Amino acid sequence: MIVLLVTCLVALLSPSVHSAGSSADYTHWPKIAPTFCNGSKQSPINIVTSSVQGNSKLTSFTFTGFDDNSTFISITNSGDSVVVSLDDEKVAVKGGDLPGLYNAKQFHLHWGNGSSSPGSEHTVDGKQYPMELHIVSVHSKYNGSVSAALAANDSTGLAVLGFFIEATSEQNKTKSWDILTSFLTSIPNSGSTTTDIMDQITLDSLLEGVDRTKYYRYQGSLTTPDCNEVVIWTVFKDPIKVSQNLIKRFSTTTNFKAASTSVLMTNNFRGVQPLNGRVVTSQVPQPAGRAHQRLHPPQPYPALPGWKPVELYSICWIR
């Protein structure tokens, strides 16, 4: 039953469309799924920081189960990504102006071609990061059913948390990523999966170093066909730091198709889409002066030697 559910979820959220093994395939998607893939609220986008508007409603999140190492069910080669299925009864997110509780179903990744080219889907002021991680969650009113959220065409049906991944030379900070990528050799071809990842790592450990109070928000879509415009996107500003050799494992270990002789899975990202008038918002930083005043309330000035208190009077003239 678990394997069947995992297979259905992967099919819904990660359809195999990279027939040529290239990010350029996304240009054909409007023909594959014309109802949504040529819509006006498509993802990913380029975030222009000078145009981002402040939103005081974008408060902190509450993450449930992100510190639980029993939430990873399996890791699968979906044919266009690496997908880690999560126990959605244990992992959830709320807050941050999300309209309710969202149960996390899975996370997957997008990458380029090792060290030669980056592969994040979203960009910031034109900068593309080496990789991007997406945690896909469904509103609790759909009882964990992604297909129900898609069928309802609910613009708030899904919430995706996006995390940029940046290369680092600090090997000791990427232990969890070393464990995660060690399973890639077990899923080299499309359709292959393993449950050995269970009880190994946590979401918190993979997201180490990211300030999850700093993020961008906009309304968008899934980044693979059918490109349904049902996603509240949260893109975090701080990148995850992963060593370059671990990033390279994704583009040198996995394949797009079932046969081991098929093309290596590289550049599995969609290009940025037009904003079409959408507004990207961000949390409003607390002014430093106000925060300082709240933490350190005014204190009376200390008396100086030889000084005596003086009474002051105010005189009002009445005409």
Automatic annotation (TrEMBL):
Report the EC code(s) recorded for this entry.
4.2.1.1
Indicate whether Lyase appears among the record's keywords: yes
Q: Name one GO cellular component term.
A: plasma membrane
Question: Keyword Translocase: yes or no?
Answer: no
Q: Which UniProt keywords apply?
A: Glycoprotein, Lyase, Metal-binding, Signal, Zinc
Q: Name one Pfam family in it.
A: Carb_anhydrase
Give the signal peptide, or none. Answer: 1-19
What GO annotations for molecular function exist for this entry?
carbonate dehydratase activity; zinc ion binding
Which stretches make up the Alpha-carbonic anhydrase domain? 16-284
Per its Swiss-Prot or TrEMBL entry, what cofactor is needed? Zn(2+)
PROSITE patterns, A to Z: ALPHA_CA_1 (PS00162), ALPHA_CA_2 (PS51144)
Q: Which reaction does it catalyse?
A: hydrogencarbonate + H(+) = CO2 + H2O
Give the record's family classification: Belongs to the alpha-carbonic anhydrase family.
Q: What does this protein do?
A: Reversible hydration of carbon dioxide.
Specify the protein name: Carbonic anhydrase
